[in-house]
Amino acid sequence: MTTSTSICCIGAGYVGGPTMAMIAKQCPDIPVRVVDLNQSRIDQWNSDNLPVYEPGLDEVVKEARGRNLFFSTDVQKCIQESSIIFIAVNTPTKSFGVGAGRAANLEFIEKCARTIAECSTGHKIVVEKSTLPVRTAEAVKRILHSSASGATFDVLSNPEFLAEGTAVEDLLKPDRVLIGGESSAAIETLAKVYERWIPRDKILTTNLWSSELSKLTANAFLAQRVSSINAISALCEATGADVDEVARAIGTDSRIGPKFLKASVGFGGSCFQKDILNLVYLCEHFGLKEVAQYWEQVVCMNDYQKRRFSARIVRTMFNTVSDKKIAILGFAFKKDTNDTRESAAIHVCRDLLDERARLSIYDPRVPESQIRNDLQLAFSDALGGLSDKHKQLIDKNVTVHKSLLEATRDSHAIAVLTEWDEFKSFDGKQVFDSMYRPAFLFDGRNVVNRQQLTEIGFEVHSIGRASEVLL
Ligand code: NAD
Ligand code: UGA
């Protein structure tokens, strides 16, 4: 690799930050500049309080920051100084206009392409790191080629497969790195960066469109497995089968495999739903109605699973939770992250607040401001307006606590919504003694020690298991 390789990444979020930190760690001779328009996010990346909570990330950032890893808001200057430019900005579902609720909003991608076109000189490799609809590179290329400065560009697709909570491990030892493109020289330049720590046979190269589509497809397949096992969990609850036993039994079939078979209150996160809806929209666009309906069902099943969980709480608690205190354990969309985007907890809390329950929420990593903001958004209309009635409901009926013991004290029920390790082994006796009777526990992640808690006196309701009272 030429020593002139230098990297700029536009977007300092959950992908841009950790991904670039890992590249900088592994390639100390390559300058890596991460830029964002959001000043406070950049300030946090430059502080001891990183904006993204990921086990092991602090160490990676500390090793490289100031050496060859830099965080800045000077987007244009960093683009000018770099030979490879990653675009890792957000691509949320459109909330307005054509394709609202399904298509990806490519506004931020287009703005990045225009900025790169405006301020570049010489030759640059532009890398799509964000998850994009297939054939987005076509539009990116057209914008770049309109550059008035005479700059030339190669466009590559290099989607990211890391999962939050395990990002550092995933970046260190990925199952594969995928690079799609038309120029073999550009592909080779990027492959050489990854080759510093990833075996060559794990670096797959494809054409641009296969690479873009593989990312959407991978997320659709993963989400489909969760929806499939969640669909079976409903049948288990009705029949006396146990979904964890079923998952173990089918997961040992090497053709099926054991991963992504954990039944839950529903998948969350910033990407599964967004990427499937994007896939659905693409299929509809190409006139593939049946294919669109097939994938949309994965999201419908997930919505059903979230609704089913809150309905079960209400039904079990004698058909009313009004003015009852329910402790919500976990608000993040999975453990080991502070991210709450599309968290199932938001939906369950909204349903329970609609029933006028009082919620006492505890999550080890999500700040109170984020929880309140998410709940306000959940009650807002399409234009973001929140009625006074809903604002008062949240202000009056939601408290956020700093520990599990505080949150569960004097409660009528506990709902476990994130699988944080500390929820697997809390002091059941102490919690039970402080609760009303019957002491209900609804385990949306099947993580608590059901037998031990039942022996203490809890009435435990798990996902995909008929309630003891029915058996
Ligand atoms: P994010 O919202 O955490 O970060 C995106 C950042 O881009 C924000 O900080 C925003 O301020 C910045 N940004 C937007 N427009 C900009 C512009 N014009 N110039 C400079 N900065 C700009 O998003 P994320 O979770 O990091 O996801 C980024 C992309 O990666 C998405 O397409 C997502 O689908 C994909 N992805 C995410 C994950 C994940 O685990 N979060 C994993 C794989 C892929
Ligand atoms: C997912 C993919 O796993 C990543 O490969 C991908 O890069 C990323 O989306 C993305 O494109 O953003 P992430 O959403 O961070 O990663 O986390 P996952 O571990 O996939 O979990 C997603 C949701 O599914 C979580 O709510 C999790 O609790 C739930 N889940 C997962 C289950 O309910 N059961 C399972 O067996 C697995």
Write a structural description.
- This protein is α/β, with parallel strands linked by helices and 471 residues long.
- The protein folds into two domains: 7-206, 3-Layer(aba) Sandwich (Rossmann fold); 241-470, NAD(P)-binding Rossmann-like Domain (Rossmann fold), CATH 3.40.50.720.
- It has helices at residues 16-26, 39-45, 57-64, 75-80, 107-119, 136-145, 167-172, 184-194, 208-239, 243-251, 272-285, 289-316, 344-354, 368-378, 388-397, 404-408, 428-433, 450-456; strands at 7-10, 32-35, 69-72, 84-87, 123-128, 152-157, 177-181, 203-206, 325-329, 358-362, 398-400, 413-416, 440-443, 459-462.
- Strand 4 (84-87), helix 5 and strand 5 (123-128) form a beta-alpha-beta unit.
- Helix 12 packs across helix 13.
- It starts with 6 loop residues before the first strand and ends in a 9-residue tail after the last strand.
- The model has no long low-confidence stretch (mean pLDDT 96).
- Uridine-5'-diphosphate-glucuronic acid binds next to helix 9.
Low-confidence sequence ranges: none
Report the CATH architecture of the largest domain.
3-Layer(aba) Sandwich
Could you give the order of strands across the largest sheet?
Answer: 3-2-1-4-5-6-7-8
- From the helix content, strand content and strand pairing, which structural class follows? alpha/beta
Number of domains: 2
**Could you say what the CATH topology of the largest domain is called?**
Rossmann fold
CATH H-level superfamily of the largest domain: NAD(P)-binding Rossmann-like Domain
What count of helical segments does DSSP give? 18
Described by strand count, sense and barrel closure, the largest sheet is: 8 strands, mixed
Radius of gyration: 24 Å
CATH top level of the largest domain? Answer: Alpha Beta
Beta-strand residue percentage: 5-15%
Overall outline: globular
Estimate the helix proportion, in percent: 40-55%
What's the count of strands? 14
Distinct small molecules: nicotinamide-adenine-dinucleotide, uridine-5'-diphosphate-glucuronic acid
